[in-house]
Amino acid sequence: MSYESVVREHIKHYTSYFKNPDDPEDKSFEAHPTDYPTVDLEFPNTGACESFALLVPKDPDLYTPLQGLESSLLTILQYYLTPEQRSLFGTMPNERFQDTTDDNILASAPSPISLYPEGLHSTVSTPASDISTTSLSSTSSTSSAVSFSSVSSASSMSSISSLLSLSSISDLQYLASQTYNGPPCVDYLKIFHRALHKHDGPLFLKVMDAINALLRSFKYPTLPADAFEPCASNVMRDAIRRWSPRIPDKVVTQVLGEAYDRAVKPYSDLLNKNYTPFSSQVYGELLPPFISDIIKVTRMNEDSLFVDLGSGVGNVVLQTSLATGCRSYGIEIMPAPAKIAREQLEQFKIRCRMWGLTMGPVELEEGDMLESKRVVELLQQADVVLVNNKVFSEELNDALRAKFLDLKEGAIVVSLQTFKRGGSNSNDIGRIFEATEKKYRPDSVSWTGQGGTYWVHRVNREQAFTIDTSSTRSSRSTRSSRR
Fold it and tell me: Source organism's superkingdom (predicted)?
């Protein structure tokens, strides 16, 4: 399912955003029930392209296709291209696009697009220290051109057929196959921003044509003249091999956000009706920054088995599988979120292919974590177990403690409340754990924007035995001294 198809399903909740400033009678940008405006965006993988509806939601809680388009584009440019390649597109934003043209006619205009929404959906913030770009400015020259000579890893793209270029801030025109040697003179991203803020539909379509032409030039480099020479590969797919030691967090959250927008967000009302807030069934979502920290703390990798007890709509399982390549399993007792989790998994697989990424195996189960035979089987193999037990009843926590007796030595349980009780009661199952309290950052969980604490429990039965025998000896010594 694409953004366009999701919008089509909920078209009555969307309205027009763009217009044609040169033709008030142009109705092509209106929110027609079936024939509404769209624009394509090239994704990194060969053959991957998606249409986005050029509309905005009436309800701010619904997703915004234009926001999704911009977020995807910035992620592609930041992480799939070198600084030299990226500079051909213009000036990357530090936090959000700023209009720095001479006339500055849009400086006071409010942005109708929320570039950095709260919650799961992730957009790209580009620190200046992370990106080295050539500062480009728009020009009114009649022979403005794009240079590919500065792209060291894409030398085969020195001649591009039908490449769009810009001759002025408001005039785009097709150029025939030519080779240019000067620096790029067109700031496509600045024009992209200007078209958004002016609601200029024709300009937005044209600058997206230019951006897509550049992206295609990296995906489909010119074939060599000599048929025996090896063909150049998709530059953006090649970029993935440069990532070390793993996929950047913001790429993971971008893919996760796209799947969430398609498979989860349209059904938020259904989820709210099925959940009982602040119960043992649901408390809230653990957001991508929290899971990123958990991955680092537990050192999960492609050889790990991750188990999420109470996996909801599957966000954590999906993020972990992509970020680490590990095998992931989640179980959810509520039918509605469990069904949506399965749909989100299918969307996530599609998004991973579009971005050229490989995720680890994922298994989702609808059922009771205390009754599932699969949980019993997998807990014996698990390397990391996650339980959002923020508001679990004491009875449920006790039942889980008993389950954890099956964990192997060195396995880790991450939870919001500790499973290790105070004191040295030899009957306390939680004594098999070394428990460490840790802090999570602000905006790591859905129920508060503040930071908080969580617990990391590592199974160490040898320690528990040592403490037990030490306590026994101390007791015997005390009894002896009283005789």
Answer: Eukaryota
Whether 131 shows a pLDDT value over 70: the answer reads: no
Q: Helix (H) and strand (E) counts for the chain?
A: 14, 13
DSSP letter (8 states) at residue 120? S
CB 13 within 8 A of CB 269: no
pLDDT-derived band at 283 (thresholds 50, 70, 90) equals low
For residue 131, give the nearest of 90, 92, 99, 97 by alpha carbon: 92
Q: What is the pTM of this model?
A: 0.77
Write down the domain spans for the chain: 3-242, 249-469
Are 77 and 88 a contacting pair, CB within 8 Å?
A: no
Pair 455, 415: CB distance under 8 Å: yes
- The beta-carbon contacts of 94-103 under 8 Å, at least 24 apart in sequence, are 94/125, 94/126, 94/127, 94/128, 95/125, 95/126, 97/189, 97/190, 97/192, 97/193, 97/196, 98/193, 99/190, 99/193, 99/194, 99/197, 100/190, 101/138, 101/169, 101/190, 101/194
pLDDT digits (tens, 9 = 90+) for 284-329: 889 999 999 999 999 999 999 999 999 999 999 999 999 999 999 9
**Dist. CA 286–CA 289, nearest whole Å:** 8
Pick the CATH number of 249-469 from 3.40.1280.10, 3.90.550.10, 3.40.50.150, 3.30.450.30: 3.40.50.150
What's the rounded Cα separation, in Å, for the pair 128 and 269?
A: 39
